[in-house]
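step=predict obj=Pyruvate dehydrogenase E1 component subunit alpha n=363
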Amino acid sequence: MTKNWPDNQLPVIARFEVRYRNYLAPDGAITRPPPAFASDIGLLVSLYRAMVLVRAFDLKAVALQRTGRLGTYAVSLGQEAVAVGVASAMRDEDVLLPSYRDNAAMIWRGVKLEEILLFWGGDERGNHSSGPVHDFPCCVPVGSQAPHAAGVAYAFKLRREPRVAVCLFGDGATSKGDVFEAMNFAGVHKLPVVFVITNNQWAISVPLRLQTASETLAQKAIAAGFIGEQVDGNDAVAMHAAATEAIAAARDGRGPRLIEAVTYRLGDHTTADDAARYRPPEEVQARWKDEPIGRLRAYLVGRNAWDKAKEEQLVAECQTRIAAAVERYLATGPRAPETMFDHLYATLPPVYAAQRRDVEENH
């Protein structure tokens, strides 16, 4: 005999959970026992130096854009720990698929500062970078790198290569079908891919609350059949730990992982944006206390691993490196007009080949 269950007593057939990871408080204090690598001061200093460099580089890039020497540029102010934490957990043979705000990850993996400037200056030569040749260039169309990442990971699985695709995108990208289609495919085929959501609370002028009713973005992995974890994206230690574990799981054949890095975009969306038009200044000011660079610096200072002299030396080194990169960028001659055709097709169709010859002969 079939038992009739009242609607409020229907049996539970599944339960799910999302875990949250954090180790450093905004003042650098320890919130819970950190992973073993947190005692590796050399590694933490490297993470810190990388974040300081990209913040100074972003500042200079904005100055170049404001003076007409660079195109539209997206800064990573306030969310540097996400890209640095993730990239530092990758192996050289892994593949990075970054968004347009992930310069820190690209720099960690060897891309030169002047190459990034070339790209944002509208020069395709910027994508012929010094980073791993298999890494993808930064992706400007929102979320479209997620299917690419699934495809890369599928190739790794077919070839039985112990490599991982690591795909970074913003919270706004989770509102795109491309992202969930990629996650669904990755879950079905148990692909070696790690999706990282940089949840900086804003998709240009759209706040997170108007993008989704989900309590977390990490839980979106559950529907795709794999684990999603929420991480304090302003904690470089937590980001490196979460990325290390997720990448190791993917490499070991345990399928994809999703990391939601909760942070905050302290600057404008890009240099073409004025966030003050939709975001109250007091909100931004309140978020400065959580930013990642000061947090990691406080942790290092508390362990007598950093001081004022080292900070001043680092700032000087960053300025010297950035100035030299800017000089090389500005000294790069313009490309010939006909080269606009050179990155359209592997073999240029006759109609475009004729146009290319015409431009070359008449410019």
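step=describe
The CA atoms of residues 77 and 267 lie 6 Å apart.
step=end
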